[in-house]
Amino acid sequence: MRIGIISDIHANLEALAVALRRLDSEKADRVYCLGDIVGYGANPNECVEKVRSLCHATVIGNHDDALIGRTSARYFNSYARAALDWTARVITDENLAYLTSLPLTRQEDGLYLVHATPAEPLAWNYILHPEDARAHFEALPPKTVAFIGHSHVPVRFDDGAGRSIVNVGSVGQPRDRDPRACWAVYDTESGTLQWLREVYPVQEAARKIRAANLPEFLAARLFIGM
Ligand code: ZN
Question: 143 C-alpha to center of ligand 1: Å?
């Protein structure tokens, strides 16, 4: 099975549409979503509705979790907090109920799905370096590939004994200085992992952020992928 794994869409409908179109044209069997569907961008409802109807499995991200009121926004920076307040005003009850229903982790086809970390999914820590990954391998069943998001930087860590932690990157707000939408495709038979990158209409996503009076920085950063 070829599985598309998307994460950190952040209400960027233009980027999400491009990723889903490419996965469809490549005949991915399934699409999984690792959360942060909302926050930062201007199309939270449209993005939640697309994920809800097209993804086979979805886990909750910290921005989704703050929106439903479980995770405190105290540690959010001012941009994230402004986006959260704006999103809370526009999100529909139905979409909020859907986000509330999402689990923190899921295991599908021998794959482990979590937004931030396997060991402490609700702590929202980051796995950025091999040292960070070490403690989290132990939280995984043997021979398991875990897919994560959260840092918006695509990277893979292996424990050398069959366990891997793969950050699929961010669809809607890449932060590795490459502004193209980023996600991963994993082949469960061959174990082949591939990151895909696509140019999307950044101009339009940024225009909507400005039209919604969200912080200018949230529009500007899309052009540089930071
Ligand atoms: Zn995120």
Answer: 27
**Measured in angstroms, how far is the CA atom of residue 79 from the centroid of ligand 1?**
13
Categorize the per-residue pLDDT at 183 as very low, low, confident or very high, splitting at 50, 70 and 90: very high
- In the reported structure, the alpha carbon of residue 63 is separated from the centroid of ligand 1 by a whole-number distance in angstroms of 7
Q: Is domain 2-223 classified as CATH 1.10.10.10? A: no
Q: What Cα–Cα distance (Å) separates residue 99 from each residue in 2, 46, 61, 156, 188?
A: 26, 13, 9, 27, 27
Given a cut of 90, whether residue 110 has pLDDT beyond it is no
Q: What's the pTM value of the predicted model, to 2 decimals? A: 0.97
Each domain of the chain, given as residue ranges in start order, spans 2-223
The percent of residues above 70 in pLDDT, for the chain, comes to 100
Q: How far apart are CA 142 and CA 90, in angstroms?
A: 43
Query: How many angstroms does the Cα of residue 113 sit away from the middle of ligand 1?
Result: 15
DSSP 75: G
Residue 222 Cα, ligand 1 centroid: separation in angstroms? Answer: 13
